[in-house]
Amino acid sequence: MELCRMQSFSKAAKNMEVSQPALSLQIQKLEEEFGYLLVDRNTKPISITAEGALFLEKAQQIIQLMNDLDQLSVELEDEVAGQIRIGIIPTLSPYLVPLVMELASSRYPDLKVEVVEMVTESILSELNYNTIDAGIISTPIRSSGQYAFAPLFYERFYLYVAENHPLYQHSLIQVGEVPSEELWYLTEGNCFQNQVNAVCSIPPFDTVKGNFRYISNSIESLKRIVETQGGITFIPELATLSVSTEYEDLIKRFKSPEPYRELSVVYLKNTGMKKLVRAFVELIQETVPRRMLEKPSNTPLDTKM
User: Fold this and answer.
1) Cβ–Cβ < 8 Å for 122, 5
2) Which tens digit of pLDDT belongs to each residue from 39-70?
């Protein structure tokens, strides 16, 4: 599996802490045993053959079943103890994790939770390789049938507006009033930015008035730009909870129907949501503001994924 992930014998061997010749020999022995090639060594990077892809799928299922047997004792016990690894998208984790950390430590002192920031594609991939137990992503997404999704909460979008901007004087903002040429953006391909584009798409740079455009991977960076340089940007609801009193007036709500995103836990359908993951999910729903647990009547923004 590591060879499939890295598409390189040398990189996979390094990650597995074995020599490259040893890894190559192991793959060769498997190929000889089963009578077909698993890896196409003539491509750069190397690729998995059609037979290799089927072999990998079956191997993943076997490994998952073995992992499930290891988890069986945990599932049968009343105590919440053990270790889980969860991937969370970067536009959510900086705001969600600090909220739930303290409660998780006090409620379940024997539960170890490792949170890793990952984009949606990586979360789905790592689930397949059993390197994470679950992910928290924005939904809905277009995916194959091996994944299951359970909605966690619903997060409204807000506009963050500089004091010198005309929209600063508005208490509520109509979606159609947002000037796209004055927005600071997240990097394209980010599901949050894809959802922003559904509200207000990015215009070509040569058509805007300004001579500077800043596109960032961080919502916090965009907030600092608004505070110091002016302009506007979109921020998710949990990000508003950490805004200092000095800048609270920069937060502007949209008129109804307010744009929002749906956040869900994703896991492999054939394994179900593990007990320790369920415990962590319950902590999240207990921690976020109660209003965020109720699904708005309008449709969530499309992730374009």
Assistant:
1) no
2) 888 888 888 888 877 887 777 777 767 766 66
